[in-house]
Amino acid sequence: MYWPGVFERIDAILARRPDGIVLTRQLQSPEAREKLIARGIPVVETWELAQDPIDTVVGFSHEAVGQAMAEHIIERGHRRVGLVWSDDARATRRRQACADTLRKAGVEVVACELEAVPVNMGHGREAMARLLAAKVPMDAVICSIDLLAQGVMAEAQANGLRVPQDLAVMGFGNLEFAAHTHPRLSSVNVDGGRIGLRTAELLLQRIEGSLGRGGQVEDVGFSLVVREST
Asked: Domains in the chain and their CATH numbers?
């Protein structure tokens, strides 16, 4: 992902002479990456598994998440699936893996509604309203995040559809409200606390010199949280 002004931001950070840097998104600017590597400052990239890491990595595979979401819907016997998705780099990797897994299993992806970030519940309702207006036949909707799934489920129910009997709905993120919707929302949980803890531990090891550059790529994994919406 390219961040506008990222090179200038990296320069501003380096001017403060930090002992280490944590990145919550991958740098796609070659100049910024080269500058960090040349400085030799410990760097931990988080929330994904960088294919070409600058240094140390703590995250999880977004492709594996997308595949697992699709496999769950396939196991439930659904054959015509809609996708309601946020349009950002990480979510795109989940979506591509999800769609590929569905198609390989002979499940039809009947529609894909993309929403610009940041997204909210209202975007999910609007996307589902468009699908219903287009009379797209489907028996499940997979969403890139719980906020969209909450909106999809609300709009489906407002139009007389039963969840999951008529339409299964699945999200990602296992946000706090997911356990309190009606029905409760199936989702994917990522242990953000563990990502934070291991990031701090590994960064300290890099700063102290007990861990070499590029010495650790840690996959914290994820877990499906299956509830009544699927």
From this structure: 6-60+191-221 (3.40.50.2300), 63-189 (3.40.50.2300)
